[in-house]
Amino acid sequence: MRVLFYILFLIPFFLLGQTKKTYKIRTIAFYNIENLFDTKNDTLVFDDERTPNGNYNWTHKRYQKKIEHISKVLSEIGQDLTNTSPDIIGLCEVEKRAVLDDLVQHQNLQNKDYGIIHLDSPDERGIDVAFLYKKASFIPNTFKSHQLLLFNEEGFRDYTRDQLVVSGFLDEELLFFIVNHWPSRSGGESRSKPYRRKAAELNNRIIDSIKRISPLAKIISMGDFNDDPRDTSFKKILKTKGKIRQLDSLSLFNPMEKLYNKGIGSLAYRDKWNLFDQFFFTSNLITNKKDSYTFWKAAVYSPNYLKTANGKYKNYPFRTYVGTTYQGGYADHFPIYLYLIKENN
Known about the structure:
globular, seven-stranded mixed β-sheet, 32% strand, 6 helices, 345 residues
C-alpha cells in the first residue's frame, strides 16, 4: 500500500491538569439532500415531474441553485474545528452519478478532491444513496450494494433503495461504512413499519457477514432511517444502545439517542421533531487505544441559514419545495455529523 503524506489538523485537548495532547480528527457526515435530480427525463424511472415541464417546474436554473446550496453546506460541516469539509459523506435522494459529478466539481468543493461511489438502485422514484470521500484521507477497498427485497400485501415487489457498503482505509485504518435510506412512512407509520423492520434485518445481516470475515471490524452505519432512535427497528432488531456504559463487545452504539432524548431532531412534521438521520456503529469504535480512531461526539448541523426564517414553519429545515411549491431552500432534513479522533504520537 502506498503511503500518503499530508497535513492533518491538530486539536489540542487539556487533560490531567496541564498535560497537553493533540489529536488527528476526521469528520463523517450524512445528508438527505431532498431529491437531487437533473432536468432530463429518464424514461426508465418516474422522474417526469422533476423536469422543466413537470409539476415541479424543475429548471436548469433551479438545479444549479440546488447544487450551489448543497455544496455550500457540505463544505462547512465540521469546519469550525477542522477548517475543512468532511472526510466521508453519505448522501441520499440522489438521482444518478451525473448530479454527484456536478456537486463535487462545484467551486465550493472542487479543491477538496472528492471521490464518488454510487450504484444505481431499483427504487421506483429513481433515487439512490451515495458515498463521497476525500482521496487524501480515505482509500476505498471494496464496495457493494445490497438489495432490500420487499413485497406488498398483493405479493408484488415494492422497489426501494439498496444499502451501500463501502470498506476502505482511513489513514491506513480499515473501516466499513453502510449508507442507508430506509422505506418512508408513506401510508402511515404503522402500515409502513414492517418495511423498516426488514431494512433493519438486512443491516443486521450485513454487519454479521462483515464480522464473520473480520471479527474486529469497525463498522459505521449511517442514513435516513425514517425511524427514530427508540423505534422497534433500532431497539428490538438492531438492539442499539444509547449509553456507553451499556455496551459490550457485541453491542451497536447509537449516539443519536442521547440527542433525541433532548428533543433534538433533523426534520419536523406536524409540529413534531424526528431524528430519522442517524449514525450507529460497533462498540470497538469507542476505545482508549492511542493508535486507533475512536468516536468523540455526534451532532445535527443546523446553522440559521438552513432554517426557515419565519411563518408557520419557522425553524424547520428550509426546503427546496413544500409540496410542488418552490421555496428555493436547501433540503427538508438537516445534515448530521460525527468526529473520529486519534491521538498523535
